[in-house]
C-alpha cells in the first residue's frame, strides 16, 4: 500500500515537472520568435532608411521585376542582407532551401514547417511592397504605422513548398470573411493559441484568433 502511494506521488510530481518544462519550453520558443521579428523589424527600418522609405518589393511586384531581376526574389531576400545573413541558395527560398538556412525567418515553434524541411515561418503584408506600391507608397506616408502589420507567424496550408505566404484580404485566416483555419494562407497561432505580429513601427504584439477576427482593413491596409 505504501509503495503504491509512493509511486503515485512520484508520478504526480513527474507530471508537474513535465508540464512545467513544456510550458517553459513553449515560452522560450515564443521569446525567440519575438526576437526574430525584432531583428526583421530592424532590417526593415535599415532597408527603408536606404531606400527613401520604400518597402522591400515582394514576389508579386511585377513592376520591380525586370530582365536583370529574376522572378522569385522576395522581400526576405532583400532583408537578409541587413541581418548579416547569407543569401538564400535559391532566390525567395526555392525547393532546395531549408529551415536551417532561414535564420531569423524560421520560428522554433514552427514544427509543421520543420517537418516539411521548409524555410520560412513568417508571412508579410501583401500590400506593402506590391507592384508600384514599393516605389510610390512609403513609410512616411503611413497614417497608422503602429496599427499596421508588416509580418506575422503564418503557415501555407496548400501542398508543400518552402515559399512564403502573405497577409491578404480574402485569403488569410482569420481576417475579414475567412473563417477556415485551414485556408490556403493562415496566421499560425503556434504560441499557446497566440501569434506574434510585427507592426510597421517596429513593435511586436501577440494576438489570439478571436482578437484578430474581422479586423483586416484596420490591420492590413
Please characterize this protein's 3D structure.
- The structure is a single chain.
- Strands 1, 2, 3, 4, 5, 6 and 7 form a 7-stranded mixed beta sheet that branches.
- It contains 6 helices and 7 strands.
- Helix content is 33%, strand content 13%.
- β6 and β7 (204-207) form a beta hairpin.
- It has helices spanning 2-50, 75-80, 111-115, 133-136, 209-212, 216-219; strands at residues 122-125, 149-156, 166-167, 172-173, 185-187, 195-199, 204-207.
- Residues 17-23, 62-71 and 91-95 have low confidence and may be disordered.
- The chain has 221 residues and is an alpha/beta fold.
- The termini are far apart.
- The chain has one domain.
Task: Name its key features.
221 residues; 33% helix; 6 helices; seven-stranded mixed β-sheet; single chain
Amino acid at each position: 500500500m505504501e509503495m503504491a502511494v509512493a509511486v503515485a506521488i512520484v508520478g504526480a510530481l513527474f507530471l508537474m515537472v513535465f508540464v512545467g518544462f513544456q510550458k517553459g519550453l513553449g515560452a522560450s520558443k515564443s521569446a525567440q520568435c519575438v526576437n526574430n521579428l525584432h531583428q526583421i523589424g530592424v532590417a526593415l527600418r535599415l532597408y527603408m532608411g536606404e531606400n527613401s522609405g520604400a518597402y522591400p518589393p515582394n514576389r508579386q511586384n511585377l513592376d520591380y521585376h525586370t530582365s536583370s531581376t529574376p522572378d522569385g526574389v522576395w522581400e526576405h531576400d532583400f532583408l537578409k542582407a541587413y541581418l548579416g545573413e547569407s543569401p538564400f541558395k535559391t532566390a525567395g527560398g526555392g525547393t532546395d532551401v531549408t529551415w536551417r538556412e532561414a535564420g531569423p525567418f524560421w520560428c522554433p515553434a514552427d514544427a509543421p514547417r520543420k517537418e516539411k524541411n521548409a524555410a520560412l515561418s513568417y508571412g508579410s503584408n501583401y500590400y506593402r511592397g506590391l507592384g508600384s506600391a514599393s516605389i510610390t507608397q512609403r513609410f512616411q506616408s503611413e497614417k497608422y504605422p503602429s496599427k499596421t502589420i508588416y509580418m506575422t507567424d503564418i503557415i501555407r496550408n496548400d501542398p508543400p513548398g518552402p515559399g512564403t505566404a502573405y497577409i491578404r484580404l480574402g485569403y488569410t485566416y482569420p481576417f475579414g470573411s475567412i473563417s477556415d483555419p485551414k485556408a490556403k494562407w493562415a496566421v499560425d497561432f503556434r504560441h499557446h493559441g497566440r501569434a506574434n505580429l510585427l507592426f510597421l513601427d517596429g513593435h511586436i504584439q501577440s494576438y489570439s484568433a478571436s482578437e484578430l477576427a474581422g479586423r483586416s482593413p484596420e490591420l492590413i491596409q
